[in-house]
Design goal:
- This protein has about 170 residues and is mostly beta strands.
- The chain has a single domain, classed as CheA-289, Domain 4 (OB fold (Dihydrolipoamide Acetyltransferase, E2P), Beta Barrel), CATH 2.40.50.180.
- The chain is built from three helices and 13 strands.
- A six-stranded mixed beta sheet has the order 10-3-4-13-12-11, with no helix packed on it. Strands 5-8-9-7-6 form a five-stranded mixed beta sheet. A two-stranded antiparallel ribbon has the order 1-2.
- A hairpin with a 2-residue loop joins strand 12 and strand 13.
- The longest helix has 12 residues, at about 155-165.
- The N and C termini lie far apart (about 50 Å).
- The relative contact order is 0.25.
- Mean pLDDT is about 85; it is low at about 1-15.
């Protein structure tokens, strides 16, 4: 049997007996995941520098080994209640289509090796979130929302971010 799963902003045909590897993370009590091929590393929260004129979902910037990386606040992206930043928060450094970004999450939880047969269309969670998701994994009574990294920012937000980063100081 073959199923279609849209991971990494493209349709991927996978056999239902194949597994998909994801890195799980949490925002409040909801589980999310990202394809492990997009993950660069996970770090504890560090001080950020505000990026003037950056989109609202951009919390700021960090300096990671000499490279300026935008920090995306997924709480703002998903319209979740704000939470004070804490040193217990995690930054999930991810890369796709040439852009590296740090995703601000409550905690990175686990590596998930799940059967492709558990993946369903993201439209099941509703239009507000499905715009940012590639699929939903049904694991027993758990739902894991799989983030589409290429759609975390809108085209307009990407353009605003590029302009803001071009004006950013070299030392963040």
């Amino acid at each position: 049997m073959v199923t279609k799963a849209r991971l990494e902003s493209k349709s991927v045909t996978v056999s239902t007996n194949q597994n998909v590897q994801l890195l799980g993370f949490r925002l409040d009590d909801q589980e999310y995941a990202l394809d492990v091929s997009e993950v660069v590393q996970v770090v504890r929260m560090v001080a950020t520098t505000r990026a003037p004129r950056a989109p609202e979902v951009v919390e700021g910037m960090i300096n990671l080994r000499g490279k300026v990386i935008p920090v995306i606040n997924l709480r703002k992206r998903f319209s979740l209640p704000p939470k004070p930043l804490s040193l217990d928060d995690h930054l999930l450094i991810a890369q796709t289509d040439g852009r590296v970004m740090a995703l601000l999450v409550d905690v990175v939880s686990e590596v998930l090796n799940i059967p492709a047969s558990t993946l369903d269309s993201a439209e099941e969670v509703g239009p507000h979130l499905s715009a940012f998701l590639s699929a939903v994994a049904k694991l027993g009574d758990r739902l894991v929302l799989i983030l589409d990294l290429n759609r975390v920012l809108t085209l307009e937000e990407e353009q605003r971010l590029d302009r803001a980063l071009a004006q950013a100081p070299v030392q963040v």
